[in-house]
Amino acid sequence: MITETIQSGVTKALQSLGLEGDIRLEHPADLSHGDYSTNVAFVLAKKEGENPRALAEKICVELNKNLPPEIEKIEIAGPGFINFYLSKIFFIERVNYITAKPDEWGTNKMLAGKKIMVEYTDPNPFKPFHIGHLMTNTIGESIARITEANGATVVRANYQGDVGLHVAKAIYGMLKEGGPDGMLPASLQAEIIGTRYSWGSNEYDTNEETKKEIDAINKKIYEKSDSEINILYEHGRKVTLEAFEEIYKLLGTKFVHYFFESDMAVVGAQIVKEHTGPVFEESDGAIVFYAERYNPKLNPRVFITGAGLPTYECKELGLTKTKFEKENPDLSIVITAIEQDNYMKVVTTALSVIAPDWASRMKHITHGMMRLTSGKMSSRKGNIITGESIIRDSIALVAEKVVEREMSGDDKKAIAQIVGVAALKYSILKSSIGSDIVYDPEKSISFEGDSGPYLQYTAVRAQSIIAKAGNSKIIQEVEPIEGYVITNLEKIIYGFEEVVIHAKEEFQPHHITTYLTKLASEFNSFYANTKILVDDNPYKDYHLVLVSAFYITMRNGLYLLGIQTPEKM
Predict the structure, then answer these.
(1) Do domains 2-86 and 88-115+446-569 have the same CATH topology?
(2) What is the C-alpha separation between 353 and 345, in angstroms, rounded?
(3) CB-based contact 5:66 (threshold 8 Å)
(4) Which residues of the chain have pLDDT under 70?
(5) CA gyration radius for the chain?
(6) 174, 323, 358, 536: which has the fewest Cβ within 10 Å?
(7) Any idea what the Cα angle at residue 549 is, between residues 519 and 412, rounded to 5°?
């Protein structure tokens, strides 16, 4: 990458002056001030007792002795900043490279040979697919794609709670209120089971006798000791998992591994029992981990209850063991809501004692919460909002207000789905992962910028220009004739590779959304001020290649967000 070329040149210049230092490059806020800038002269001048500008001038003299062809010129700005201006040929070669190798653009080999497991979504059968699951899925899929773009082999995993008190509450609701009609589609059956869970949960919280009955059902589920409960359990688990798969298909996610609490409970309980004494302790019939002994900020946690049932913490131990035994990843990433932060810290602390190697290869990423601008957590149908309903509502809103009326029914439906999902995903990913999100459905489908549909529409506009030109192939290598001046569009396009690396280093997809929004804005300015397809445009051929490079960058960037680029809008 060009940054390495610049850093290498500055290092050699410093060495020739008998100096050495950490060389940091930044992009000037104003692109007219250069493509890269370094403050190394400031840093070293203080150390060497020199004037920063005088030292910058010495460094520039050395740099100019062997200036690489990618750099057109070097200038000193202000009291000692060194600004680098890249050459016209550099940008032209970048543009041609992008159109020659579109699928490679934005990828690198930084994580080549590494296997990284990313666990995300984690919905619970018998419960609705809620907004938190939608956020975790969107963030997790984007992080998985960004990690792949940086060269790693990514293993997508989904951990689902198919046992636990929530299941007992749902089954209690089905026993008392009736289960779903088995002839209904899986999504409708799952919706009914979700209402039974809500009813059973309310009963559990308000009626002491009901609480005892549901606790008994919970034990029977683990033991598989009641035939009627077993039948309800197997059917409810099957249809809710099928309903989840429909949502995953809408969101564009495919998992390699599905882990279930029912399996992890056995593995986790065995780990806890094997380490009771040196790590875990018995207390009033339960088995407890006193995390505060290792980290005073943490609290003790029960891993096996007095009734002999494994807790979430216990199952998490089993999950970690299973992950490393199945795939042995170099890094295991888990993405959850912020509420699980303390819980995961306790589990990781326990693992640092039991299996320090596994603990050192784990990373927990937490996200904030989502709320609506109206403050009302209800869908357009008047029901309590779920992750699925917010997806369907977004698609319906696009179908009503955005998609052209003259399209065929099938085209309209397909595009509404692509654009509706994009609007929702962009709303989640445009902010830092740890931030809370205020979701405004109307703004999310706006074409005025800062939205997924805006980015999609801009990409489609670029593709339509290429189609109008009659170019069946967009791969061509041309150079603009003499006199052509590089625009900000080329300068922003070439920065895509850096943004992908930055997003990987911080595990923050919002760097991609910010970049793409800036890129789309610059393209629209270019389009508004440039008559690309007129016959008397002396740069027509190059402009078409540039538009192609923009389209490829936008398409590849949207892919990293888990957003599909439609063929038309």
Answers:
(1) no
(2) 13
(3) no
(4) 375-384, 402-406, 471-477
(5) 28
(6) 536
(7) 75
Residue whose pair of structure tokens reads 């002999």 in the numeric block: 308
Sign of the torsion formed by the C-alpha atoms of 513, 103, 118 and 162: positive
Beta pairing class for 370-372 and 437-439: parallel
Going 270 to 275 to 277 to 279, the CA torsion angle's sign is negative
The whole-number pLDDT of residue 381 equals 44
DSSP 156-206: EEEEE--SSHHHHHHHHHHHHH----TTS-HHHHHHHHHHHHHHHHHHHHH
Spatial CA neighbour of 159 closest among 256, 229, 243: 256
pLDDT for 569 equals 82
3-class secondary-structure state, position 247 = helix
H or E element, residue 319: helix 312-326
Strand bridging mode 71-77 / 81-86:
antiparallel
Residue burial 19-49, b: 16+ Cβ < 10 Å; e: rest: beeebebeeeeeeeebbbbbbbbbbbbeeee
Residue whose entry in the numeric block shows the structure tokens 């002839």: 183
Residue ranges per domain, the chain?
Answer: 2-86, 88-115+446-569, 371-427
Decide: residue 540, CB within 10 A, 0-12 exposed, 13-18 middle, 19+ buried. middle
Q: For residue 124, which of 176, 170, 77 has the smallest C-alpha distance?
A: 170
Signed CA dihedral, 172, 176, 182, 188: sign only: negative
CATH topology of domain 88-115+446-569: Isoleucyl-tRNA Synthetase; Domain 1 (1.10.730)
Is CATH 3.30.1360.70 the right assignment for the domain spanning 2-86?
yes
Can you give the pLDDT at residue 177?
94
Report the residue count for the chain.
Answer: 569
DSSP assignment of 516-562 equals: HHHHHHHHHHHHHH---S-TT-TTHHHHHHHHHHHHHHHHHHHHHTT
Cα→Cα distances 234→171, 224, 237, 265, Å: 11, 11, 5, 18
pLDDT for 379 equals 42
CA–CA separation, 410 and 422 (whole Å): 18
Tokens 């002795």 locate to 65
Residue with token string 């962009």: 426
Q: How many CB atoms lie within 10 A of CB 249?
A: 10
